[in-house]
Amino acid sequence: MISRLAEFIERNSARIVAAAEEFAATQVPVGMELDSEALRDHIPDILTAVVADLRNAQSEGQRASKAAGRAPDSSGNISAARSHGRLRAKSGFDVNQMVAEYRALRASVLRLWAAEGPIQPAAIEDMIRFNEAIDQAVAESVADFSAETENWRHVFLGVLGHDLRGPLNAILLTSEVMSTMSADTPFSEPTNVLIRSGRRMTALLDDLLDFSRTALGMGIRITRSEVSLARELADEIEVLRAALPHVAIDFQVDSAPVGLFDASRLREALSNLVLNAAKHGSSDAPIHVSLSSDGEQIRLAVENEGDPIAASELQAIFEPLKRAARDESSTDTSLGLGLFVVREITKAHGGSIAATSNERGTKFELFLPPSPGQS
Length: 375
What we know:
Distance between the termini: 83 Å
Number of domains: 2
Helix content: 55-70%
Radius of gyration: 29 Å
Number of helices: 13
Strand order of the largest sheet: 2-4-5-7-6
Strand content: 5-15%
């Protein structure tokens, strides 16, 4: 008579793990060598967890959650399946290769078990529980595999952005020298185009580096110093008026808070909001910028007239690499990080940001808490 599945796995764990190791060896990426320990990885621990699961009673709700891969990790710790997913990502496996390991493990266990004798009624329940446990392990492995892969993607973007700064700075410096030498010559304007393009690329790289740092959990770095926000933001408004001569920008100051802020970052946030308003708002309507404080919080608002943003889009407007549906056909080279950077700068200052939109226009409001030393 066929034995219960938990006992069978315990008795034959060495044979099952050996078969899993043999299959894993067929999935190793080309050019990489893994020893026996790396090939087995957490498979023995995964089998131990499966055996424990088979012996534990479970409710119908727990059964449904596990079948859908939504059961919580045991004991609140990082499970063997999660660790397996992360290590396979680090070893260069792709997600299909990792999931194939689970398919092979499932088939190997059931095939060896069925070979022991005729299937008994109790074996059906064991098979269901075993498949639920494997499905849960797959879900955990895939989740952590994806998280590890995403982390390395952000590391790559960060390194790429950092390494591109060197040659780009050389191009900018050379272009500025050429601009000085070619003043009032036919080469003057082409050289100025190079400089403007180089500065635009620098801004894009800065956004990319900020995005990578934030995605890796490092957040946007700010350096506080005592500044007058009204003066700093007024200076930025003048820069924006020069850059956008066709756009009317109003700036109203109801209070002039002085405190410890990163002026450069807050000017960047204001610039991103105004440029966003200029791009999407009505070309014949002014952009209204206001700065106020009630002693409990500082409010910076940017408003523009134009078509309203749909509520579904408004919820995701601060997410990275996302654009409103109306922008999908745009030829603009923006990375779609501007509003994301604004949000992260605000968070780094301990503040929050909100957006509202209706038939009258769109408003972004940035709220900052009073800083240490504010007067």
